[in-house]
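All the exercises in this workshop are built on plain-text protein records. A record pairs a protein's sequence with a compact description of its fold. The structure tokens are whole numbers drawn from a learned vocabulary of backbone shapes. Once this layout is familiar, the rest of the handout is easier to follow. An example says more than a description, so a record of this kind follows.
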Amino acid sequence: MDRVTRSALVEQVRSMAGMENSTFIEDAHIAVWIDNAARRLYNKLIAARGQEYYRREESFSLEKGTKLYTLSADFMQLLAVYVHDGPTHVPLAAFEMAEVARLLNIASPQIRDYRYRLTYSPLWGDQIEIYPPPACEAVITYHYIPTLDAHDADETEQPVAYNFISGFAQWVIYDVVALCLLKEESDPSMYMQLKAQLERDIDSMAPHRDTQSAGRVLDVRGDLGGLSGGADLYAWRPRG
């Protein structure tokens, strides 16, 4: 991973754009562009299977009768979720709203009966809903992709730093240099081309992260252990 501070990125942008001593664009303005570019790059890296680099894990205990639980404040994307009560670990499948009644009819739910659904509350943020309402002690563990932290332009307390997959921080620099050149009505085409080359590199790494993984068939319907009652649908997933 490359850890680079935002102030270092500002310096590299100014150097590459030939604006080291220029006051035409303020550092704070460049910092905003860097933040925006960093978020876009982060999303591209995640889409290219950067989950392995950024994945985090959190757990919480189920409370009897409580269906809704607030997820981590930096939650962006769910990768996996399972429930466990000591040695037994059971992966959770998502439920559909049409299945709520069937889940509520389970008289004495055990951990193998639980299903989940992601939801959002304007007050509490991202949440996970568990059905049937928990009736036994257990722990939910989930793996997720966090958001990229948003920062103010002021770095007086602590330097803002980003973690990017090695080599791809240059994408942010090329993107912001192009914006600087456009603002001063100069030609940004060279940096747009360099940025496009890096994008091709990012896209090309997606199917080659793990050459030992064979192609396999996945159940993409998620029929919730037979609750839906329909035929399974499958999709081919390529190697890696």
Observations:
- The chain is about 30% helix and 25% strand.
- Residues 211-215, 227-237 have pLDDT under 50 and may be disordered.
